[in-house]
Design a protein that fits this description.
Elements (H helix, E strand, L loop, with lengths): L8 H32 L4 H8 L11 H15 L6 H17 L4 H12 L20 H5 L10 H18 L4 H9 L6 H13 L1
Length: 203
């Protein structure tokens, strides 16, 4: 009898089984979460090597006319996120340079930045990713460059474009898979769809 009510043996057994089931499900969810976290923190040696060997390159535009056409057209789109026209041009030149170094479409990199940080170079995610392209800071230690500042635009773009190129090569040019790996959401295409949809407005 509980609180003046007579409780049958079958009711007690039923509640006990429910409690055991809930405990099991909680344990299973925790185990899956822990496994996923461990998987996401695995260090890809090929990516580490690629980041470590990344070096500066010359200006990425073939001629002045190409530069003017591209910068003017993309500046109109970027105005939504960056009001200062001079800073807009700095961002666009830096994105074009780093994307071209890695043989990536600059418009695709702009799309990644739009989804990742809305062009906020000081953005920090809930898991600690930093800067415009939301790069995880553990990479600095992995390549022996702990002094690098990921909120610095050029540095962040260098890391981000190198990482994205690596995943695109790994996925043999398949953008949805490469973008999902970049975002740490491999197996789901929600993030990839966001970036690819954004890409339409930049092209």
């Amino acid at each position: 009898m509980i609180n003046g009510q007579l409780i049958s043996t079958s009711t007690i057994v039923r509640h006990f089984k429910s409690s055991v089931a809930l405990l099991f499900l909680s344990w299973l969810a925790f185990s899956i979460s822990a496994f996923s976290t461990a998987q996401s923190l695995e260090i890809d040696p090929e990516l580490r090597k690629r980041l470590k060997s990344s070096i500066a390159a010359a200006d990425s535009f073939e001629d002045r006319f190409d530069a003017e056409v591209w910068l003017v057209s993309k500046s109109q789109v970027l105005k939504k996120y960056i009001k200062d026209p001079e800073y807009r041009l700095r961002v666009l030149k830096a994105v074009h340079r780093e994307a071209s170094r890695q043989n990536l479409p600059p418009e695709l990199v702009l799309s990644v930045i739009q989804i990742e940080s809305h062009f906020d170079r000081f953005a920090i995610s809930k898991v600690g990713a930093q800067g415009m392209m939301q790069v995880m800071p553990f990479w600095k230690k992995e390549i022996g460059r702990p002094q690098d500042n990921l909120t610095k635009m050029d540095t962040n773009l260098r890391y981000g474009c190198t990482i994205l190129r690596h995943y695109l090569d790994r996925e043999k040019g398949r953008w949805p898979e490469a973008l999902a790996r970049y975002n740490g959401s491999y197996g789901s295409y929600r993030y990839s769809r966001k970036v690819l949809n954004a890409w339409d407005q930049w092209r």
